[in-house]
Specification:
alpha/beta, Rossmann fold, 3-stranded antiparallel sheet, about 20% helix, binds 1-O-pyrophosphono-5-O-phosphono-alpha-D-ribofuranose, binds magnesium ion, Hypoxanthine phosphoribosyltransferase
């Protein structure tokens, strides 16, 4: 276990995350009714949730990865693009997007709309954290791990200035 600093408050423990992922894996397995699914990891933040979730889904899976970038990041109006697109076709396939956190909703609004235009059979979104404080785009999270009202969180894929992604729990950064 890594040394934590006094400005890090536990929000969800590693044990709670793993228990919830087992439940989500069972829900997702049931949802797709024995059919194969293409599971899409949203890099970088989604990498740990994706790695654990795919191992708890009991279906035939294809795995693929995307990474989003915005022009003029840091400005409110940054338009989203792929800095890495899917490498497989999703036409006619069941697709599950796996994301660490939905915050303003702009990232998932873009990804859901863009992938939907490729005519998948079904398109669903799993997000470990559904955070409401700053929501601007109306995004439907089909499978969520935890609801959070507010706060800036790190760990389990989520970073602050590229640090803390490797932590196995979720923490809030407090002053
Ligand atoms: O709902 P939103 O306000 O769009 O924010 C959520 C997104 O922001 C973070 O990713 P980021 O683009 O910072 O890249 P990262 O995954 O590489 O950390 C996070 O991982 C989500 O993907
Ligand atoms: O709360 C957050 N933590 C880490 N990364 C994020 N990206 C959007 N919101 C967050
Ligand atoms: Mg991300």
């Amino acid at each position: 276990m890594k040394e934590l600093t006094p400005n890090m408050k536990v929000v969800v423990s590693a044990e709670e995350i793993q228990k919830r992922i087992d439940e989500l894996g069972a829900e997702i397995t049931e949802h797709f009714q024995g059919e194969p699914v293409t599971v899409v990891c949203v890099l970088k933040g989604g990498f740990l949730f994706f790695a654990d979730l795919v191992r708890s889904i009991k279906l035939d899976l294809e795995l693929d990865f995307v990474r989003l970038a915005s022009y003029g990041k840091g400005t409110e109006s940054g338009e989203l693009v792929f800095s890495k697109d899917l490498e497989t076709s999703i036409k006619g396939k069941n697709v599950l997007i796996v994301e660490d956190i939905v915050d303003t909703g702009h990232s998932m609004d873009f990804l859901l709309r863009t992938l939907d235009e490729r005519n998948p059979k079904r398109l669903a979104l799993a997000a470990l954290v559904d955070k409401h404080e700053r929501r601007e785009a109306d995004v439907k999270v089909d499978f969520y791990g935890f609801h959070l009202a507010e706060g800036f969180i790190i760990g389990y894929g989520m970073d602050f200035a590229e640090k803390y992604r490797e932590l196995d729990g979720i923490y809030e950064l407090v002053d």
